[in-house]
Design a protein that fits this description.
By secondary structure, this protein is of the alpha+beta class. It has helices at residues 2-23, 65-74; strands spanning 27-34, 37-41, 43-49, 53-59, 89-94, 110-116, 125-130, 137-144, 151-162, 165-176.
């Protein structure tokens, strides 16, 4: 008798867990050298503008839910965590499908990269890589569905020297795109 009462509840729970598993967990990891200092960024948030432009935030420290929501709306990361402590982070702004809705490494024309370093603001950098002529950044793989609520997966590697300091990274990601579009972000054309 008790089993029959729990059975509909257990079935409902199983459906919820199955739906969550099919949606997939976000996976994000950047292994980097930032101004000669090792960094591992394993927390992320994603914003999407005009269902084509994506800005990805990778952080060394956790990103609070309300902060991720604000980032999804304005594509602008805060350089301090919820406690007011500076954080090490990287952002990548790009058009994964160019002006189209299918992501492809060959469709990306440029990537804006910004770096904030928690302990040394002198290591902060910002670059725009033009992929046709600048070999400092490579999109090794890119796939998914460029639509609100879709997914985006890929690998982006890069290296550059600035003020005689080395910067390099390998960013791996498989993330859900937000359900609502951002008010700002990379413009990808028609």
């Amino acid at each position: 008798m008790v089993f029959r009462r729990l059975h509909p509840l257990a079935a409902g729970l199983l459906l919820i867990l199955t739906a969550a598993a099919s949606r997939g967990e976000d996976k994000c990891l950047v292994k980097a050298v930032l101004g000669g200092k090792q960094a591992t960024l394993k927390y992320c948030a994603v914003a999407m503008y005009d269902e084509k432009g994506v800005t990805m935030l990778f952080s060394e420290s956790p990103i609070a839910a309300e902060e991720a929501t604000a980032f999804q709306w304005n594509s602008y990361p805060k350089d301090k965590d919820a406690a007011g402590k500076p954080r090490t982070q990287m952002t990548f702004g790009f058009c994964p499908g160019g002006a189209k809705s299918t992501p492809s490494p060959t469709a990306v024309k440029s990537v804006e990269v910004a770096i904030n370093h928690a302990t040394n603001p002198m290591l902060n950098q910002q670059w725009v890589f033009e992929l046709a002529k600048d070999k400092g950044l490579k999109i090794e793989k890119l796939s998914g569905s460029l639509k609100l609520g879709g997914r985006l997966a890929g690998r982006m590697t890069g290296a550059r020297k600035s003020d005689e300091l080395a910067y390099s990274w390998q960013a791996d990601f498989d993330v859900a795109l937000p359900q609502k579009g951002a008010a700002a972000g990379p413009g990808c054309g028609d």
